[in-house]
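We emphasize that the prediction below concerns an isolated chain of 1087 residues; any contacts that depend on oligomerization or on bound cofactors are therefore not represented. The input was used exactly as deposited, without trimming of termini.
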Amino acid sequence: MATGVFDTRGARQSLGSNASGSSRRHSLLSVEGSPTATTYDIATAWGDDGDAASRWRRAYIASDTGDATGVQSTSLALPDEARFTTCLAMSSDQPLVAVGSGSHETNMFFVQTLDDQLEVKASFASKFPIYSLAFKDNLLMAGTDRSTSVLYRVDRARLLGFSGESEDGPLVRCVGTFKNKAAKSIDIAAPGNYVPTKRVACVEFAPAYAPGSSWPPASVGAGAELFLSCLGGVLNVWDAAHSQQALRVEKVSGQPLSRATWSPHAPATLVVAAGIDGMVSVMDLRRRGKAVAWRSRQPEGLGGGATGGEIGADSGVADVAWSPYAPYWLATGGEGAQACVWDLRYAAADGAGVVALRHPTSHGAIRSVAWSATHADLVATGTSGKSLWLHSLRATEDGAAVRTAVVADCRAADDIGTVVALDAKGSAFYSLSTCGDVYAHRITQGALARAAVHRSESGKEFCEEPRSEPDAGDLGGAEAGALGGVESAVYARDLNAAAEAVLRLATRLKRDPMAHADCIRLLCDLFKAKPRIAHNSWALPPLPPASAALTDAGAAPSAEARDGAQALRGFATDLRQLAYGLPPGFPLEATASRLPVVWQALEQLNMANLRIRLERMVAAADAGAEADGRPAWKDIADRERQIMQYVKAEPQLFDPRLLRAVVKLILPHDCIRGLTLGLGICQAYLSNQRMREQDAGASAAPAITCADLDGLVHVLLFPTVFDLDTSGNAAADSDAMAARNVAAPTVQLVRERIGECLAACPEVVFEMVRLEITIQQTVLRGNGEQKKVAADIVSALHSHAQAVRVLLASTGTDSSRARIQIHPTYPATTTMSASAVRLYLNSLLSTRAYEEHLINTQWWRMSPPAVPADEAHVIGSDRGWPSSFPLARVLNRQAAVAIVPRLQRQIDVVLATIKKEPLGLEPRLYRDTLLKVARVAVLMQGECVLTFVTDVATKPTSTASPASTRQSVCTALDRSMLSTVFEDLGSAFLMLLEALTRHTSHRDAFKRAASEAAPLKESLTELLVLGSDAQKSFLRLPSVVAASDFEQMAEQSKAHIMSIRKYLRKLDVYAKDLEKPQANPKEVDLQ
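Result of the prediction step, given as a token string:
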């Protein structure tokens, strides 16, 4: 480690050279047998080989002759003529350090710590010597030798050279004095006790406390600054706004306290205090009466090395520090040349911490301790032997033990005094010696990389910088070596180098994520943003009753003494988690936004990890297992947005088989979320496919097309119109109906048919999934209101049909559209979901829209003219005509049994009525019936003949029991009959309108006739446009053009259109402008 001499006249000098210009370094960072090596043999340092003397001798030789760059240090000699510096306090948000001195003259110094360069910005002479300091925002608290704590307000901006609060005011201004209380008079020492003192040994501001807690008292205002101070063995807690009386006075010990500090973790009610009697006491200020909630004693030292041995005599505690990452970890240091780490979750009546930290060659007292602000496993100690040691804690793989090693050191010049203060900020440590020297120590990247925690096999022996590109070919040794480099870089917090290494590995790892699942999981653990440990996730154990174990070192431990093995195992378990990768609360998101390469690496790892997790969750669900009592489908559903995002970014990583299984897992439990996730995946694939079609340079990448999603779409729209109907009577599938004989479809055949549709018009297929979501939501919101649900379903299908019409016009080709046989004029043909089709047709049935039902199901009855109707076919072999779908049997039976008879009955009733009394039928009934007949005549593309075989029940007789026989039933609506019905009804309606115009008792007779005729005119006009487009599309189909009766079909279509146009001309006479009706000639003559 770099050392040097110091200019006592106040000049700054970087450690590393002495006055003669030569270099003198002291370090343990060397390997036995190689005194000039720059690497640290961690395995040897942590090993148990050799006896204590051998280990001590090796360490001594390395320390005296080693040449390593583990610490970069900068020093500053303060202009303190008394050379009696006592304390150091750091500003949490500014590069500023306050230093106190026991001098009666200049005894307060402010040092700027910008970029680890130290510079004295100001010095002052306080009225009394200063023995403790605390710095928070612009408040500085100083402990004096007169039992008082003095509060100062500091203009930090002006100290640092910026505009401050007042350009003319003082930089440091006293704003309060607090008189601390002692337990009893401290003027005279009792025999056998330490000489009392009026020095305030410690002051510290409280962190932000949680509102609503029982501490602080209700009298304390919101945002008040609290602080503690120690005088003798008494802890005083103050409100900085009230100096008359302390909020709380707690006698902690009969001997003077050396250090007390607040827990930085919520809810900020714990305070630990320790003193020269060796007692370590944790107080919970929420407790009434005695606040001590945990207590133990600091041992002097451990024989036989740093991690094991016999407990020696008790020793005083000089410093205590809370871990910034684990709210239940404490580190203490004292006279016994060792520091102890405690786990507050376990009782410690036997006076031993879970880990002891010491240096093999150091026998001086530990005067100060500080946890690293960036690593959960690093603890620094400052000694009376002129040294600063950085200790690393390492849990064994089995979690049964914790080993320690000194990974960096800094031994000061020969004339330096004790390290009396030590603090960590960011990645640096700041220390203060009794002789007035301030140090800034920064652990080098190399030292951190070599001290990194490794879990990969080769990483455990990895001692170099992150490697560059791994060897080509299969992973394996190169992969493991690169992993070791990533682990070292992350531990050194060089996330840029770590991310670059991850990106080089990602391509190989993602080729087969499941084969490299362990490697990907390890990398994810490295970059995982760990949450902070919640304060309510642990509790202090019950305080054991007073016993000889706390007062008599020779007495046996109490019955409530903790189980040492259990405490060590618990500590080791947490250490393994917190020390690996990034510490809790690490600002990973901010780092990723600042370094794009880190963001890219995180995205690659998250994608690969999500792929692995989905595979495992699907496998667990298939096995009926649950993770932490939570169903796998809920875990998957909660990742909906992430899945869609990553599928869009890299669809080749998530194969369609896995995506189908994922959606299939959710659908039975939450249909809407499953459909939504499936639609998002489909849209991601479509977006990726369109981008690749536009980007010619992407041809080298594996082709990802929407046709690969045939299995997923099958799951989303199941049962489809291609699947066998399993909800009805099995015998119905074998009935000879108007639909042709079709071979039973297999799953493979169904998905091949869906794949054809996806290849032709993927946008239309995905619109079908969106329709499925709408229908499911409509049904769930219905609350039993069948009429409203039916109307909403019909409206949804019509809106869907309009959307499909637009998509078909803008995508695909005529041949591709012909293959999928979608006709937007007929909404029932615009979806492959059999459930949606049946709900739509049932809704038409419930609203008595029989003609719409019959029109929409005609495609399930119509056979391609080029294919014999009696020939068996597999679905899709005849260009996808719906008549080859299994659903055709169900729909045709419904049409024959319910629809045709009911429509026929409606027409017959109207015809019978007009024969008896043409003027007795309401105009509304005329219009409805005329429009129904016209729609069937125009939109039906063939004869409506339905033939099926069904079971007909026979009534019981006196000689025979009830039975059933199979009979052939034929129902039909002849198209010529429909033409005749339209002419008869049309003529009767015109007679009714004429009668209205001749009704002379009312002057608005023409207006009423027009109001009755206008709705029918508008509806028929729209029907002509719709029918003309539908018939043109139908007559352009290749199979229809090739039909032998093509000319006859064309003539029939033309005749129906012409018939309606003629009728519209007649109707137009009565449907004139309602504001200006045409006058009746006869009525004019009468006037």
